Amino acid sequence: MNANQRRVAFATVIGTTVEWYDFFIYATAAGLVFSQLFFEPAGKEIALLISFASVGLSFLFRPLGAFLAGHYGDKIGRRAMLVLTLSLMGAATTLIGVLPTYETAGLWAPVLLLLLRIIQGISAGGEWGGAVLMAVEHAEEGKRGRSGSYPQVGVPLGMLLASGMMALMTGVISPGEAFVEWGWRVPFLVSIILIAIGYFVRRAVDESPVFEEIAEHKAQTKVPIVVLFKKHWPLVIIAALVFAGNNAAGYMTTGGFFQAYTTNPDGPIGLERTDVLVAVAFGAAVWLVMTLIAGYMADKVGRVRTYQIGFVVLAASLFPVFALVNSGSLAMLYLAFGLFSIGLGLTYGPQAALYSELFPASVRFSGVSISYAIGAILGGAFAPTIAQALVQATGGTTAVAIYLLVVVTLGFIAVSMIRDRADIDLSFRNQAEQEVGALVFDKRTVEGQSQKASH
């Protein structure tokens, strides 16, 4: 790895870490205190459902962020979009930290909170595509899986940082009522420092060589999203289903469901907030390690095979994980989160390389971003809300495990439809080969398309 590739790797890791730290402290706060601070007049159970729904609300706006970032990322470059999305996320997160609560501002408090959450969603929708393309398009030959796993670890790193920060506030700096009164604000305000670091790091990296080639040939697509859906809509749908399988399971922790379920004083477990947050941080650390391992595996055994192994592990772990959580033992909670994170990492590490190799260079930013955003809606958007509703309706978590098993199975089926293209040249000059053969049932070849065009 040369000096520029190291800078790119660091820039994608630090940027995605900061972005997802911002995203996850909202989800954690939603599970712990937002129902009380912003939605309490709705009643305890409804307020918690609304709080989780506010986590999902941002996902509905990810496609808008993906569309905007994809459009301009395919036209003016990957790097510019990375800097813009990071700044947008940081501004929204910092402002959440100074919002008045319902007690102070009435209805304006939840309205402003939801507006800022929407801005977070728009930013997150544009962030991921730019980060993974910078990493993968700069990667050395034969190492795209490994390089693509670097921005992927920003998600568990962001989760680790968010959980750690929240645990520090609930357990040391502002325990008990102090956390509800003011302590929850500090992790949001700290974001401004992290954003400043990420901003300067990202400004220092070179533009993607693939986009430089497109710009040199003045071959930017005028409206990338139109071309994407006209010519490659099956790829978008199948790629989205792949991510949905991972995302629905992942949002049991990243979306705050497990945190709320295990700390609810009226529930069956009733653990301390800080203890649960530290356990979540442990799970995030396992997720991080497994994501890196999956990146290496993707280069050795293939992207699709790594995914298939990951989905099988994830499916097999679901019922044991919920049984361990329901034991009420803190030690078993650690074991549950660690076990759960193995499958999550194996189905997350190969994603950047797999997605980048699916789409032609001219619409690649739009393709990976929009597929990711749709997958997030289908999978994670309302997974915590659905899980909470299932618990309230059935009085247990068996229905939640079944729901996740269905989504994970769909992810396995979807990834099995994708042809592994680890050796494909991603440059713009190889656009013709990139246009065909990404799915196992697509029998088209470059030669066949050329003959068809000549008749």
How is this structure best described in words?
It is a single chain. With 455 residues, this protein is an all-alpha fold. It has 23 helices and no strands. α4 (78-96) runs antiparallel to α6. The longest helix has 35 residues, at 3-37. The protein is globular and about 65 Å long. It starts with a helix and ends with a helix.
SSE blueprint:
Blueprint: H1 3-37, H2 44-60, H3 62-75, H4 78-96, H5 102-105, H6 108-137, H7 144-152, H8 154-173, H9 177-183, H10 185-203, H11 209-216, H12 224-231, H13 233-254, H14 257-263, H15 273-300, H16 303-326, H17 330-346, H18 351-358, H19 364-379, H20 383-394, H21 398-415, H22 431-434, H23 446-454
Helix pairs in contact: 1-2, 1-4, 1-6, 1-7, 1-8, 1-10, 2-6, 2-20, 3-4, 3-6, 3-19, 4-6, 4-10, 6-7, 6-19, 7-15, 7-18, 8-15, 13-19, 13-21, 15-16, 15-17, 16-17, 16-21, 18-19
**Shape descriptor:** globular
Which band does the percent of strand residues land in? under 5%
- Total strand segments: 0
Low-confidence stretches: none
Distance between the termini: 46 Å
Helix-strand makeup class:
mainly alpha
What gyration radius follows from the Cα positions, in whole Å? 21 Å
Helices, by number, come to 23
Report the helical percentage: over 70%
Largest sheet: none
Mean pLDDT: 87
Question: From the structure provided, what is the oligomeric state, counting identical versus distinct chains?
Answer: single chain
- Could you state the order of secondary-structure elements as H and E? HHHHHHHHHHHHHHHHHHHHHHH
